[in-house]
Design goal:
- Helix content is 86%, strand content 0%.
- It has 288 residues and is mostly helical.
- Helix 4 packs antiparallel against helix 9, helix 4 packs antiparallel against helix 10 and helix 7 packs antiparallel against helix 8.
- The two termini are 49 Å apart.
């Protein structure tokens, strides 16, 4: 109980301190980027920054990385008070939860961006009906708020630097993983190149993308039970191992005290990870 209290109090203090420093760090990082100065961040921060942005999380990468490591260490310490195996599983679980949660957040952000594509095409069509151009519509959409704000602003900036609209749209299509971006960018590029009465074509493309997204959401809802089953099947062995290590410490001591036990434990965890990846592929493949 003493260990849990000390570790918990330390964790809260560190997280509060990190939260107070987050805004200051973000301001300093912005000033350094504006001035083109400052030390190059570590590889982990460079890797994490673009992924946080892709997930729609406005969090300082250094703060997020530090909070993740502190949470993993705290979970390992609290779990270790019950048994070494629980400590190992708790710390490893928090470490694994970071990339998994980031991937899930990125998938949700991509779905939000995909859901906005039909509206973007319809707004471009409205601009064309009013006598505007595709470039003007993209610039206006990039200045507005929304899930696709950053993407459209990048296209608008490329046009301001002198890039042709078709090339800017092609670059957006190549770098984006959002479903429907290639079709939307291709349709806008065709309209910008050929001209003519293109508003009805863009509205038809928007309706087609909306129908496809609706079908995808329906498939996701139908496969929700399969995804839940995959989580239960994947976590049940780990939960039983943690329960057994607390109820009967002697039954799991060989996993940490003998070479064969450590090999079995490492092999089991690797197989658990491989099974989780395999089930995710099966469930994802069924939804396509």
């Amino acid at each position: 109980m003493t260990v849990v209290t000390v570790v918990g109090a330390g964790t809260v203090a560190v997280l509060v301190w990190s939260a107070r420093r987050a805004e200051a760090r973000a301001r300093v990082a912005g000033l350094r980027r504006a001035e083109g100065a400052g030390a190059d961040p570590g590889r982990g921060v460079r890797w994490l920054g673009p992924r946080l942005a892709a997930a729609g999380l406005e969090v300082d990468p250094a703060t997020a990385l530090g909070a993740w490591l502190v949470a993993a260490a705290s979970a390992a310490g609290v779990g270790g008070a019950a048994s070494p195996v629980v400590g190992l599983l708790s710390g490893g679980g928090v470490l694994a939860a970071g990339p998994v949660g980031l991937a899930l957040a990125r998938a949700r952000a991509e779905r939000r961006r995909a859901a906005e594509l039909p509206e973007v095409l319809e707004r471009v069509a409205s601009e064309l009906r009013a006598g505007g151009t595709v470039a003007e519509a993209v610039e206006a959409l990039g200045a507005a708020s929304g899930p696709l704000h950053d993407d459209l602003r990048a296209v608008s900036r490329a046009i301001d630097r002198g890039a042709p609209l078709v090339d800017a749209l092609g670059a957006w299509s190549r770098r984006s993983r959002v479903e429907g971006v290639s079709e939307a960018a291709g349709g806008l590029a065709v309209v910008a190149r050929l001209g003519g009465a293109a508003a009805p074509a863009l509205e038809g493309l928007a309706a087609s993308l909306r129908d496809r997204l609706a079908a995808g959401e329906e498939a996701r809802s139908q496969s929700s039970q399969a995804r839940m089953s995959a989580w239960v099947v994947g976590t049940a062995p780990l939960a039983y191992l943690a329960f057994a290590s607390v109820a009967d410490p002697g039954s799991s001591s060989m996993l940490l005290t003998t070479t064969a036990g450590r090999v079995c434990l490492a092999g089991g965890l690797l197989l658990e990870g491989a099974g989780a990846v395999w089930m995710r592929r099966i469930v994802a493949g069924g939804g396509r």
